[in-house]
Design a protein that fits this description.
This protein is mostly helical. Helix content is 71%, strand content 0%.
C-alpha cells in the first residue's frame, strides 16, 4: 500500500522531477511533469528566466496537499485496489473462519432474557390477554424465580381471572421476596377482586400469609342418623351388626342397643 507521508516527502524533495507521481501510480502525469521540467530547464538556460521554478512549485504544492490530506481520502484515491483485494481475500476465506462468528452472534441473539419475558407479559396484560401474560411471567420466573415484581404481576393476573388461591400465593411470595409497595396492593384495580374476598383482611394481618385452615372434624355418627324409625326390628338389628363389624360399636354396646330395640 502507498503511504501518503512517503509520497509527500518525494514531492517535497524530488517534486521538481515529478517522482512522487510515479510513486502514486500516475505515470502519465509523471511523464508530463518530467517533460515540463526539461522544457522549463531549456527556457531557463536560453532566455535566462526562472522558468525552472514552475515544476518545482508544482512539486511543493503537491507535497503540502499530500501532508494535509486525510488518510481516508488518500486511501480512497491511491490504495483502492489494495483495499478491494483485502476485502475479496476475506470473502474468499474458508467458511470455517467465518461460521464461528455467525454462530456466536446467533447464539447471543437467541439467548432468553428475563426482561424480554417481563416486557412481553406487561404488553399482553395491557392488551387484556391475561392468560398470555401469565405464560410470559411464568417463563420469567423460570429464569429468576425470586423476582418480587413478577410475582406481583402474576397476582394481578390471577385476581382478574378470579383465581383467589393463585393470587394469594403469588402476592405472598412477592412480599416475602422484597415487594415493598403495600399501598399498591390496597389500591391497584387489578387486585380489587382479591380485596373483596372474606379472608383478605386476615391475609394482610398475618403479614400477607394465608392462615392454615383448621382441620374439619367430622361429627360422630349417632344411631338416630343411621337407623330410621321406619325400619323394622330385623333391619335395625342388621344395621347394628354392621356397625359392630365396622368397629363403630363394641360388643357390649351392640348387646345394649339390641336389648333396647327388642324392649328387653
Amino acid at each position: 500500500m502507498k503511504s501518503k507521508y512517503v509520497a509527500a516527502a518525494l514531492a517535497f524533495f524530488l517534486g521538481i522531477f515529478g517522482v512522487h507521481r510515479f510513486y502514486l501510480g500516475k505515470r502519465f502525469w509523471g511523464v508530463a511533469h518530467f517533460l515540463l521540467f526539461w522544457l522549463c530547464f531549456a527556457i531557463t538556460v536560453e532566455e535566462n528566466t526562472p522558468a525552472i521554478m514552475l515544476p518545482a512549485l508544482l512539486g511543493f504544492i503537491d507535497a503540502v496537499l499530500l501532508f494535509v490530506m486525510p488518510e481516508v481520502e488518500f486511501n480512497e484515491r491511491y490504495n483502492r485496489r489494495y483495499m478491494n483485494s483485502t476485502s475479496e481475500q476475506w470473502e474468499n476465506e474458508p467458511r470455517r473462519r467465518q461460521i464461528p462468528r455467525a454462530s456466536s452472534k446467533s447464539k447471543n441473539q437467541s439467548a432468553p432474557d428475563v426482561s424480554d419475558f417481563k416486557r412481553s407479559g406487561i404488553e399482553k396484560f395491557r392488551d387484556y390477554d391475561y392468560e398470555g401474560a401469565i405464560d410470559s411471567f411464568q417463563k420469567a420466573l423460570e429464569l429468576q424465580h425470586e423476582d418480587p415484581a413478577t410475582h406481583f404481576n402474576l397476582a394481578c393476573c390471577y385476581s382478574i381471572l378470579e383465581d383467589a388461591d393463585q393470587a394469594y400465593d403469588h402476592l405472598g411470595k412477592a412480599i416475602s421476596y422484597g415487594f415493598k409497595d403495600t399501598d399498591k396492593i390496597n389500591t391497584h384495580d387489578a387486585l380489587s377482586f382479591l380485596r373483596t374476598q372474606p379472608g383478605f383482611d386476615t391475609f394482610v394481618k398475618e403479614g400477607y400469609k394465608r392462615p392454615a385452615s383448621p382441620p374439619v372434624e367430622e361429627a360422630p355418627l349417632s344411631l338416630k342418623d343411621i337407623m330410621s324409625p321406619a325400619d323394622d326390628l330385623l333391619d335395625q338389628i342388621i344395621k347394628l351388626g354392621e356397625l359392630r363389624d365396622k368397629g363403630v360399636l363394641t360388643d357390649e354396646e351392640f348387646a345394649l342397643q339390641k336389648r333396647k330395640i327388642l324392649g328387653e
